[in-house]
Specification:
single chain, 361 residues, alpha+beta, 2 domains, six-stranded mixed sheet, three-stranded antiparallel sheet, 11 helices, 11 strands, 37% helix
Length: 361
């Protein structure tokens, strides 16, 4: 009976070991997934910090991840059973297990003409439409991706190396808030034109709201005089004579990265030692870039590893991090990732065809 019990025990043990494979996959896949997401965000944060310090950014893509699991087990039983005294009986048990994981991760630096083109090409208006219709706040989209609308400046100087003089931005921030309020109340819609060039975007003012005070304020700020319900959105942002179109000058991906890099808090020592360019107001005081990026993006700094950080990297002897409870910065970083992905591919039409009457009469 004793021998039969041992055989049954080890049989059950071997059966249970056969289920280790799915368990390894469940744990391994999730861990790789978390690490990929974390390191992607850390790379973006690191490059934003580099841009703030006028250091060259580098992008290293994880092009493939593969891993092989090898699990070996062995058990053996040997013994002697005699009919005589039980003290003469003996049973020996031996076993061995071996677990081997062989991950293969392939990195490829992002470079070459195609990459540079994607980084330096202004964000397509179609990207703005797609993001706006996928649930993103039009205020966040415009503040992040647009240099100016109808000559209303959104700190366009920040789309490159840090300027020495404070940019213009107050009027644009209010404009983007007005767009957001109208978006939330469904008084305006972005879509494609029905007539003219059907590939161009337009702003549709819902007919019942054509004389709405909030709509009128937006049109007055944009210096739009047309009474049409459908207002074309164009890329001819150098034409200052238009009073019937919305001219949007969008940033490139590189411009967006430069813009967000000004949200990096720089240690006092680095400012004092001239390691970053300082922007000043007309009165000579240091300009606070959080006035431009308030509610959009902030990177904090500390000498020690931060606690409660969503993302943190060490650079030049300091820690830079995004707070875990800073939802604005986390959402902006998520939006940046989506824009980066969209810039590398062709966008199919993703919005409505505007078919309402063109005139309010």
């Amino acid at each position: 009976m004793y021998l039969k019990g041992l055989i049954l025990f080890f049989s059950l043990l071997l059966i249970s070991c056969s289920q280790f494979g799915p368990d390894f996959m469940k744990a391994g896949r999730n861990e790789y997934n978390k690490v990929l997401a974390q390191t992607d965000d850390e790379e973006i944060l690191l490059n934003l910090i580099r841009l703030r310090y006028a250091d060259n950014p580098t992008f290293l893509k994880v092009s493939s991840v593969s891993t092989a699991f090898n699990w070996k087990e062995g058990f053996g039983i040997n013994g002697s059973i005699f009919d005589g005294a039980t003290t003469s009986n003996n049973i020996g048990v031996r076993g061995n297990t071996e677990y081997i994981e062989k991950p293969t991760i392939t990195y490829s630096p992002l470079s070459g003409a195609d990459f540079v083109k994607n980084v330096l090409t202004p964000v397509d208006h179609e990207v703005i439409l797609l993001l706006a219709r996928s649930g993103w706040s039009i205020e966040r989209i415009l503040r992040l991706t647009v240099n100016r609308i109808n000559n209303i400046n959104n700190a366009s100087e920040a789309s490159g190396p840090t300027p020495s003089e404070a940019p213009e931005f107050n009027e644009f921030i209010q404009l983007s808030k007005d767009f957001r309020d109208l978006q939330k109340t469904s008084k305006i819609t972005l879509g494609y034109q029905l007539e003219g060039n059907p590939d161009e975007l337009a702003l549709l003012i819902q007919k019942d709201y054509r004389n709405d005070p909030m709509v009128n304020r937006l049109l007055n700020d944009l210096k739009i005089e047309t009474k049409n319900n459908i207002i074309p959105i164009t890329k001819n942002y150098f034409d200052s004579t238009q009073d019937s179109k919305i001219q949007i000058e969008s940033r490139s991906l590189a411009g967006i990265l430069f813009f967000l890099s000004h949200g990096v808090e720089v240690p006092i020592d680095d400012i004092a030692n001239g390691r970053v360019t300082i922007t000043k107001n007309k009165n000579g005081e240091i300009f606070d870039w959080q006035k431009v990026l308030d509610g959009l993006f902030t990177v904090y700094t500390s000498k020690n590893p931060p606690e409660q950080a969503a993302i943190a990297v060490e650079y030049r002897g300091n820690w830079f991090y995004i707070k875990d409870n800073d939802m604005h910065s986390k959402y902006t970083l998520m939006l940046l990732n989506q824009i980066s992905a969209l810039q590398s591919g062709k966008i199919e039409k993703s919005g409505p065809i505007l078919t309402l009457p063109v005139s309010s009469n």
